[in-house]
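Dear colleagues,

I hope this message finds you well. In preparation for our joint manuscript, I am sending the Uracil-DNA glycosylase-like domain-containing protein (Wickerhamomyces anomalus) sequence together with its predicted structure, so that both groups work from identical material. I would be grateful if you could confirm receipt.
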Amino acid sequence: MDKFKDLTERFAYKEDDQIVKTPTKRASSRKAATKSVATNHKVTKSTTSYKYHKSELLYQHLEPLPDLLDYNLKLVFCGFNPGIKSAEVGHRYAHRSNDFWKFIYESGIVDEKLVPQEDETMRERFGIGFTELVMRPTKGIEEIPAIEMQQNVPRLIETINKYQPKVLCLVGRGIWDSIVKHSNFKQQKFIWGLQDQNLFQCECFVVPSTSGLVRIPRDQKLKLWKELKSIVYEQ
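The corresponding structure tokens are as follows:
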């Protein structure tokens, strides 16, 4: 039980926590990582599973990735949470099967091929930042219960509305679904791409997860990324 108490305290979100600009240097930025919302909700069969608790213990040695944000950014990407490989190397979308870095180049959002280790430089070079819905790393999103995702929505909205990028891109439909459920947002039918919403003080665009496990045809994914590029760079 002490281990679970330590874990919930580690990822607890406090309302008076301040969100600050992440320093460029890795050493200090890791300490400034924004923490997830508390996971110490009452344990019930409907909200929690053994696999969920096991993941907290199994990956407790991994540090969350810091927000890479600043004011006046063109684009901010938000993923579900860091994967194991990304947490191990300290950079986003680091697994070799993830197509994020391919899509961001092939769509024309950036004009050169990049690698995960360059994520920290993208605010200055391209006006692009990064954050996550849930900060704690897991092997897959199935290890994050829906209630934990929804509890992190207020932190995400607060963070984005503080920095106010031109466009927020959610990398995965499940992120948008969590936002809709938590906020009781009225939406008749989901469509990929630009969302009609008033939760964020910026444009909100949704693309499929770039994980290699997602079975949506690649050409359809790339088409959405090109639409994203046109919105980001329109005058």
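For the figure legend, we might mention the following. The first strand starts at residue 75 and ends at 79. The two ends are 55 Å apart (CA to CA).

With kind regards,
E.M.
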